[in-house]
Fold this protein.
Amino acid sequence: MTTIAIVDDDEAVREALGDLLMVSGLACQCFESAPAFLTALRSHRFDCLVTDIRMPEMTGIELIEKLHEELAELPVVVLSSVLDDATRAKALALGASAWLGKPVTDEHLLDAIATAMENSDPGAAR
Amino acid sequence: MSSTLCDSLRQDAGIADFASESIVIIDLAGSIRYWNPVAERLFGWPGLAVGGAPVADLSPAPEDEARAWSQLLQEGVWEGQIRRLTRDGEVRIVEARRRLRHDEAGIPRDVVEYARLAQDANVEDLPERSAADAAMAASWEIDLTPATDILDRIRSRSQTSGGDDRGDLGRRLLEAARIVDVNERTARLVGGNRGRELMIDQSVASFWPVASRAILAELILEAIRDSEGKRFHRRLASDGILREPLVTIWRAGADRPGHLFITVNGAADDDRSYLFLRASEARYRKLVHYMPVALWQVDASHMGKIYADLRSRGVADFGKYLDDHPELVDIAASSVPVTDVNRSAIELMGGKDAQDLIGPVGYLFTESRESLRRVMIGRFSGDRNYSELMKLRTLDGRVLDVRFSVTYPEPLVELDTTIFSLEDMTERLQMETQLRQIQADFSHAARIATLGELTSSIAHEVNQPLAAIMTNAETSLRWLARAEPDIGKVRQLTARIAASARRADNIVQRIRSMAIKQSPDPVALELNDVVRESLLFVHNEIERRGIRVTTTYSRDLPTVVGDRIQLQQVIVNLIINAVHAVEGRDETEREILVATGVEGRSATFTLKDNGPGIAPEHLGRIFDGFFTTKPQGMGIGLAICQSIVTAHGGVVSASNRTGGGAQFRVALPRARSLT
């Protein structure tokens, strides 16, 4: 079964995204911080990551950098209210598949997740 | 009769209505100008019969009258017993008080005489002198007991030598002798400004004129050698106070051993003291007349008598008494006369000349009758001064804001003169209002600038609940679109939507309160709450920079009074400064300490950071407007903080921490009770 990881420090957003993916037939696991997700990544396999950018402890950009460094070929969809073009460009350069602004429609989000997973090389993902 | 005199008599008639005493007004030529109903009853003469007659014609001893009159004209006041012929041809002895009155220019105008029937015509004490003379005498009672040693030495010396050191012993005798009591005339002549009360128990030498001390010492020695209470007289040379005064001295009775009585009779020495007094009074009047403060002189003496009467009847809570007898305020307004005003008072009231302002004092209180009530309570309570802001309607119809101050007469001072001073505050209050408006505009502009700086934080904060709402709503639709809709799930999601919507609303409200322009609204505040609310504005800025914030809230903070939004603005500004200050450090080391506390009568907010601190050369200027070290900064943040804190009666200060970093401290005064 396809499992999506959600990283967002805001509980209301995490819960909403989790419910949406569930009703859409996708399994998902939610994390309140990037380090919590990285820990889980050591022992779990995820098909796609949906992450916020502005978070305490470790930002979404730092998380993507880390995944990039570790050559984790995990498809990444950014979901953020950050409007900064430089940050967006950096995320995309580091391999993020899509950059969605908050709030997002369900169709946009599900399409972006599907596209991200299609474009990635399934063989490379753990 | 001039219109001035007519007016003044009309006021006098107003006073006389309250008086239980005979009141007679005599012009400077000695003719009776006014004779009140009590005087009619006391002496039997109707006012019409004596009007214009010389007052001396009513005296059985015109020479006594003449002496009293000359003393009055020179000293300004006279009191004593006078004898006056009644219509039935009898002689009535009355206790009288006469006062010389002056016009605005300081020129003597007339004489007012208050008189009542003497309780006991106490003339036996001085059988060889007239009653008038006795009353006019400056009298002393002195105690020689402290001088016993000196008297012994004088006695022993006088047996051996008539010697030179006798003068020295005489001087020491007067220094040792104590004043037991003096009458008012003595106090007036030699007491200076100190008055009778302060002369008592002092050394005789401190008050007796130097030139005649030796003679007094001789007289004292003569008197104590006498055992029969004989009187010893000596006429002295004019001494600048009295003209050729006659000193009389005798021993007190056996019940007061060691005590002596002294009387000094004589008219005031006209040449120097009188002219000096007149000149100094003229100078004083001129000074008062041209003073830039508006001054009113009112004569509330008859109210003083009413108060004394009320006190003697046991009235202690005068405020309550006035509640029950509000008419007393009206009586004061219509009967207490303004007796003099200066030039500034005429200008302030928009009058043509002093006459416009001479009259019952009520016109000062048409806009605020309560002020008059408080003035009366102040006098009744024995206060020396009273002051308040009040509205004043001028003669030309303007309404001014004035600082009204009153100086009440001192209890021991014979002349009952109350002084009002009024200062026009209208322009100042308008200016203060304008300044407050400018300050409010300026701080509003600064708040908008702060919000601008926080835009991305705000967008993020509002977008979080919006994102949750949108996703939850769409998820609900998906549950409902299923063949078997899951109503339980939809209910749960709808509840979450409502919660997120409330959260978004709170954020918007908070930001709107900062953004809208409103007049400062001072309310009682807990500083801890203000600090917590301020942190909400900036928590995003703090979190995304990974700054560690430690908060310490004091539990014993005094309540402060202030505008919530403006105080939030101060704290938000200071925290944003601190956030920028620590940005240069490694993320793991960024630290801000927030604390509230109590210092003296103030609640304090302290903010410490571990940034680079403030350059010593900037410490003195960082609160100046348009001073900034930031390339994008306008330099108004800290200036606004200071102006807001100052407007709240507080102090904001900046310093460097010993271990590095800056410290800002805001102290706000404890709220006074909100009444």
In short: Residues 74 and 95 of chain A are 9 Å apart (CA to CA). Helices of chain A lie at 11-23, 34-41, 60-69, 85-93, 106-119. The mean pLDDT of chain A is 89.
